[in-house]
Write a structure and sequence with these properties.
Helix content is about 20%, strand content about 25%. Helix 3 crosses helix 8.
């Protein structure tokens, strides 16, 4: 630490927040690792593409899946589902926890996940516990929704850490919750341990945990993957999928010094980030769907080997440059000796980070099946991509605007036969509009442009 005064200010702020000595000590270790010169960057020349024995391909396992599924079903009573529920909906123009937003068919993310849990229990005649990792922001609001669930829900709160001024490393001190942030989803391992929940789960005979983001409704428990873990003796598995240009900034799996690692763009030197985004060189990216052996997790925490790479998330708040110190959940893959990646199809990955993603989720492109799992609409032609690409220009849908400001009912806009939809300018959609093929609506420069009810827009640019 360059100045002990920074330490004292951080300690004082965290004590005022009534954080524990363990939480304070853990955060100060993160601060001490900051290197103003290198920032912990990874040289891309040190990386290599993982071989198939490190990253398995689900397509090449298709013949084995029936047997693996039967094996996995016998282990469901040793499995727990954990959803990361710490996020708010600011990137979607809202200020509430994302989990309580209406996601599809008028139901919230949490409602749909609860439906999945009930369907799993009915289908497989086993109680698979649902655990939510909440943040200080989402905990109270979530409780108001989940108290009506017809099953016991387990929650724990992840840690919180002060945001720091980039130039001085002193804590942001505006006196509001804006001063604080969760230290990344990599915090899940320490948080679940310090809460006592990890020991409780192990004492109840739980062996496996499936962890995923709450806003990825396509990430569902799949017994065959548990069977694969058990058969191969794996202690950690990270689902990855093929990179496209749309997600070329996402974390990717690489070999570094012969070991499997997750590499995030924040760990790459700025002058190498264009190379990092080369989808031909780095072919897969992290879905943040993680399968982990809880006994192995306890051992890693006990022996202190779970020291995750530090990510400096740089932001500007009220004109000041700020650092959030974070770790990534998937980065733990480099700390388990029997860790593997699993290449899956994109139908297990549909996060909703932006308003355009939410619009796509609510459309007829995807449906909820009888077990509340998100599926491709079977009516959508197979010649079209899994989901159309939707782009909303900032002059059409800019923060803090929301979908109702520009759609009479966004869920009635049909994208079933759409390949791409691009919208810019002051456009308003009435009900039951149908988009087919590649459609661009450019109303820039107009006072307003209204898409009338029951209109069909086919390949072309409008107006």
């Amino acid at each position: 630490m360059r100045n002990p005064d920074h330490v004292r200010r951080i300690e004082s702020k965290m004590r005022e927040r009534r954080l524990t000595a363990g939480e304070i000590e853990a955060f100060l270790r993160m601060v001490a690792r900051i290197d103003g010169k290198s920032r912990g960057y990874i040289d891309l020349n040190r990386t290599a593409t993982p071989t198939p024995n490190y990253v398995m391909d689900s397509k090449k396992l298709e013949d084995e899946i029936p047997a693996l599924e039967e094996r996995g079903k016998k282990l469901l009573n040793q499995t727990v589902i954990i959803k990361l529920n710490g996020g708010r909906s600011t990137s979607m123009g809202g200020f509430v926890p994302k989990g309580i937003l209406a996601a599809k068919n008028g139901r919230s993310y949490l409602d749909i996940i609860a439906g999945q849990i009930q369907a799993f229990r009915k289908q497989w005649n086993v109680e698979v516990p649902l655990v939510l990792m909440n943040s200080f922001f989402t905990d109270n609001a979530t409780a108001q929704i989940t108290e009506k669930f017809p099953f016991k829900l387990i929650t724990f709160i992840q840690h919180q850490a002060p945001r720091l001024y980039e130039d001085s490393l002193t804590p942001l001190d505006r006196g509001t919750d804006e001063d604080w942030a969760p230290p990344g989803h990599g915090d899940i391992y320490e948080s679940i341990s310090r809460s006592g929940l990890l020991d409780n789960l192990l004492n109840e005979g739980k062996r496996w945990a499936f962890i995923s983001n709450l806003d990825n409704l396509a990430a569902c428990l799949d017994p065959w993957i548990i069977g694969l873990l058990d058969r191969d003796g794996s202690d950690f598995l990270l689902e990855v999928t093929d990179r496209t240009r749309a997600d070329r900034k996402g974390g990717t799996l690489v070999l570094i010094d012969g070991g499997l690692e997750l590499l995030e763009i924040a760990q790459v030197k700025p002058d190498e980030r264009e190379l990092f985004q080369d989808i031909e060189r780095f072919k897969v990216f992290n879905t943040n769907n993680v399968w982990i052996n809880l006994e192995a997790l306890k051992d890693a925490l006990k022996n202190g080997s779970l020291d995750l790479p530090l990510i400096q998330n740089h932001k500007t708040i009220h004109g000041k440059k700020i650092i959030q110190l974070e770790t990534a959940m998937g980065a733990a893959i480099g700390h388990f000796p029997r860790a593997r990646g699993l290449r899956v199809s994109r139908d297990r990955f549909f996060p909703t980070k932006r308003v355009g993603d939410l619009f796509l989720l609510q459309s007829d492109v995807c449906i909820l099946d009888s077990m509340d799992r998100l599926q491709r609409n079977p009516v959508r032609p197979k010649s079209l991509p899994l989901r159309p690409r939707v782009f909303f220009g900032s002059d059409f849908l800019d923060f803090p605007h929301e979908l109702p400001d520009h759609f009479e009912d966004p869920s009635t806009v049909s994208l079933l036969f759409a390949h791409t939809l691009e919208v810019s300018g002051p456009v308003f959609f009435e009900r039951n509009v149908r988009i087919e093929g590649e459609v661009s609506i450019n109303a820039a420069g107009l006072e307003s442009y209204r898409i009338r009810r029951n209109a069909v827009l086919k390949d072309g640019t409008y107006p």
